[in-house]
Amino acid sequence: MKQVRVMDMLGKEVMSEENSSINMVNIANLPAGMYVVLSQSGKTYSAKLVKE
């Protein structure tokens, strides 16, 4: 099971998805800004995301 969480720069979780095959996360409903994306599926991966 893969888990993807998107958090704003204040650390507030603004989106979370759990699925067995997440390859994309739809951020269309999020306002413009900077976010941190955390993904877990055995290992933890994080990345910064800027939506303009």
Describe this structure in words.
The protein is mainly beta. The chain starts with a strand and ends with a strand. A hairpin with a 4-residue loop joins strand 1 (2-8) and strand 2 (13-19). The mean pLDDT is 87. It has one domain (2-51). The relative contact order is 0.33. It has strands at residues 2-8, 13-19, 33-40, 44-51. A four-stranded antiparallel sheet has the order 2-1-3-4, with no helix packed on it. The protein is 0% helix and 58% strand.
Name a few traits of the molecule.
52 residues, mainly beta, four-stranded antiparallel beta sheet, 4 strands
Summarize the structure in short:
The protein is mainly β and 52 residues long.
Question: What's the SSE blueprint?
Answer:
Blueprint: E1 2-8, E2 13-19, E3 33-40, E4 44-51
Antiparallel strand pairs: 1-2, 1-3, 3-4
Indicate the percent of residues in helices. Answer: under 10%
Spatial order of strands in the largest sheet? 2-1-3-4
**Overall SS class:** mainly beta
**Strand-and-helix sequence, N→C?**
EEEE
Our measurement of the CA-to-CA distance between the termini, rounded to an integer number of angstroms, reads: 30 Å
**Which regions contain 5 or more consecutive residues with pLDDT less than 50?**
none
Tally of alpha and pi helices: 0
> What portion of residues belong to β-strands?
over 45%
What is the CA-atom radius of gyration, in angstroms? 11 Å
Biggest pleated sheet: 4 strands, antiparallel
Strand tally:
4
Shape: globular
Mean pLDDT: 87
Number of domains: 1
